[in-house]
Amino acid sequence: MALLQIAEPGESTVPHQRRLAVGIDLGTTHSLVAAVRSGLPEVLPAADGSKLLPSVVRYRSDGSKEVGEAALLAAAQDPLNTVVSVKRLMGRGRMDALRQRSPYRLAGDEQDGTSMVRILTEGGAVSPVEVSADILRVLRDRAEATLGDELVGAVITVPAYFDDAQRQATKDAATLAGLHVLRLLNEPTAAAIAYGLESGAEGVYVVFDLGGGTFDVSILRLSKGVFEVVATGGDAELGGDDFDATLADHWLRSWGLDRDALSSSEWRSLLRLARRLKESLCESVNDQTLVSQEWMRDDGSRPLALTSRQAFKELTEPLVERALSVCAGVLHDAGLNRDQIQGVVLVGGSTRLLNVREAAQNFFGQEPLAHINPDEVVAVGAALQAHLLAGNRPGGEDWLLLDVLPLSLGLETMGGLAEKVIPRNTPIPVARAQEFTTFKEGQAAMAIHVVQGEREVVSECRSLARFELRGIPPMAAGAARIRVSFQVDADGLLSVSAQEKTSGVSAHVEVKPSYGLGDGEIAQMLEDAMTHAGSDMKARALREHQVELRQLIESLSEALAADADLLSHSERVELEAAMSAGRQVCGGGHLDAIKNALDGLGRLSGPFAERRMNRAVSQALKGKSIQTF
Amino acid sequence: MNPSRSEAPKVMGPTGQTDFSLFGLPEQFSVDESALDAAWKRLQSVAHPDRFSASSDFQRRVALQWSTRINEAHQVLKDPVQRATYLLSLYGRSIEAESNTSMPVDFLSEQMALREALDAARERPEPHRGEALAELRAHCDRALKKGFGRLGELLDAHPDDDALDRAVEEVRALMFIDRFRDEI
Predict the structure, then answer these.
(1) If you ran DSSP here, which 8-state letter would residue A224 be given?
(2) Which of A23, A56, A195, A404 has the highest local Cβ count within 10 Å?
(3) Residue A551 contacts B where some CB pair is shorter than 8 Å
């Protein structure tokens, strides 16, 4: 795509008009937004200078919300209405939430357990998608305030092992927050981009991500511009918080105190102290240097908390060992030896701990890449990708991320077995179709259950969707030919359709997404948000559609300049008339008229787009053929 | 997954274009893998939806269809068994892998022997089991390599009817070995 030039005909265009796009790391404990400014990626701070936004939202009885630091501070005294770690609930049902020992009051479809969990707060029931949208909205506002303009879109990162339901939930949250998703990007891939590994470095890389509450290891294979996630593993209950708790428990033991004897505020203050001293260890002169601070108890006593790098290392060795055994397991899954690893990338604030860093270095036998702030590296990579996707190609830099399907997609067959239709690691986008038949004479309906996962038994895979094909005409058993088609797009998101072939009758398809929100629900939420937010939101929607229409007309003008010969005279006249009508509508303030113009112009230009693409593809290999083949 | 997005995916391309011609490759069994991968990347750099993230919905849909088609063709051409199957289909020959399972007796008894060897290998204690499985894998790799060599000879230079018949048989045998290797 060429750069967008927002200018009326006759006006001069602004040279090098920037199209603002951001990268967002929507994390379990905190989230960040980054953008490329003056050619360099940087994390955008809030007005108070803080860069990490705690991923915490508190819902009050008066309908107001607190997001970030304020909500985090309130979490202890108002735990039921303050949602933390919502990422663990994305695309998950009530039963999943119960299994995770989620502390909230939960609601969800009891009958079939297939709708996404709802958290009951005094501000009303909220889905994980809405909670995430509230976090994303703060980041969007922060970005627009800092960059001084509206965003054309965002790249949002997700863990490599996220399934379709979790990815779809993340995309829905962004839509709800008014963000156009340019791409969902795997977190380890984002980290690799931040280190520039996509520019030529072929080989196998390990991304070692130790955050506040979770540990993830991913093995990436980079070859010819394709990022393949070879294996992932992790421990959802291992993070920096565990290091703090281990240190705090050690002090309590040394003072002859028991954790149960502490008030909850005392325990929290001790944890904060542990974190502070832990962080200060990085600056110690040597391993024996002692760092200490008095801890103030409720009764006024002040025991001295004391540690050194050496002591901390010994204390937390079991935690580090856990992380390393996960690494060994993931390497084993990938069928790789340590000496086949070309590089190790450190991600997550806890990889600043020197003993963690040393352990990773010793385990992999090489110095890890760590010069980019490990809290920010994922957001930075996402920002670089967003900048590129928005159409800014700094200094001719260009790369294309070709992703693979993270988990196999399959269908339930007789006996509760999962039959794989698209195996994991297939490059996406991809489409596959599979034919099924009826097993009873005159069978009029067929239930289709789409699952995701590597296991052979359906009950051990993730349920993605169930739908029923109805209206199959009466036929002998085995005579019907039902073709089920899967399409996975570049974000790894699935859509499914089905059709009965022999009769020519197109059977009715009803897709019921498990643990998802229906399109209708999302539309309703958006509408609600519009109504409640009043004129501000409406003005915003109008501006967004104006920009979209202008952009479409602009890109059509460029397309016409290049490939007008692909249209007949009458087609061209019709398209140009619609474009000039669109220009007139665009200046007016009627949202519906603009939407209509967008739809109409989109439809009318369809065949043109198709022919241009055919031409582009058939010309892609020309001129190259002599050297290459 | 949203119901409204579930239009039937169309894998399309101008008529008359084969997976080979899409990649600018000659219609034969032997493929220059680096040329294949280079062409794949080049085609995706034109057609991938990421190139159209700011374009109209329709344009993005066209890009998705093309990008899907390019990936599909790449998968087919990259895998020798799939490539041979596809090439034979261009000559009007079907492998009939599902409906026609009759194979020469010699081949079947060899397959039976291999399966018995696999079962026996699995019973053995480590490290002997690992070694036995590795040996079986190597055996399959040698068989596949030989088979691909024969397919090249049969299919690369204007195959006649007899060559096509023999190629069909060869592909069916290789499918057996390929599947067996996956099971090890």
Answers:
(1) T
(2) A23
(3) yes
Q: How many CB pairs under 8 A join A and B?
A: 163
Assign 3-state DSSP to chain A and report helix, strand, coil percentages, each to 5. 40, 25, 35
- Predicted confidence band of residue A45 (pLDDT cuts 50, 70, 90): very high
Better-predicted residue by pLDDT, A407 or A533: A407
Q: Which residues contact B27 (CB under 8 A, 6 or more apart)?
A: B18, B20, B21, B87, B90
Q: Which residues of chain B neighbour A606 with C-beta distances below 8 Å?
A: 58, 62
Q: Which residues, in sequence order, are CB contacts of B34 under 8 Å at separation 6+?
A: none
Task: Give the integer Cα–Cα distance in Å for B35 and B57.
Answer: 32
- The confidence score (pLDDT) of residue A505 equals 61
Tell me how far the alpha carbon of residue A96 is from its chain's centroid: 20
Contact across the interface for A617 and B66, Cβ inside 8 Å: yes
**How far is Cα A177 from Cα A83, in angstroms, rounded to an integer?**
17
Give residue-wise pLDDT tens across range A307-340: 999 999 999 999 999 999 999 999 988 889 999 9
Is A260 tagged catalytic?
A: no
DSSP A353: S
If we measure between CA atoms, which residue out of A517, A457, A453 comes closest to residue A163?
A: A453
Paired residues of A435 in beta bridges: A483
Pairwise CA distance, residues A497 & B6, whole Å: 5
Which chain A residues in 189-218 lie under 8 Å from chain B, judged by CB atoms? none
Question: Can you list the alpha helix ranges (DSSP code H) found in chain B?
Answer: 19-22, 33-47, 57-78, 80-90, 105-123, 128-155, 161-183
**A187 classed as catalytic:** yes
How far is residue A521's CA from residue B115's CA, in Å, rounded to a whole number?
53
Q: What is the pTM of this model?
A: 0.84
- Is some CB atom of chain B closer than 8 A to the CB atom of A247? no
> Do residues A212 and A389 touch, judged by C-beta distance below 8 A?
no
Secondary structure, 3-state, A132-165 = HHHHHHHHHHHHHHHHCCCCCEEEEEECCCCCHH
| Omega before residue A303 within 30° of 0, cis | no
- What are the start-end ranges of the E strands in A501-550? 508-513
Band of residue A170 on the pLDDT scale cut at 50, 70, 90: very high
Count of Cβ atoms closer than 10 Å to residue B105 Cβ = 8
The ipTM (two decimal places) reads: 0.80
| Closest Cα in chain B to A181 | B53
Whole-number Å distance between alpha carbons of A622 and A627? 10
Residues in chain A: 629
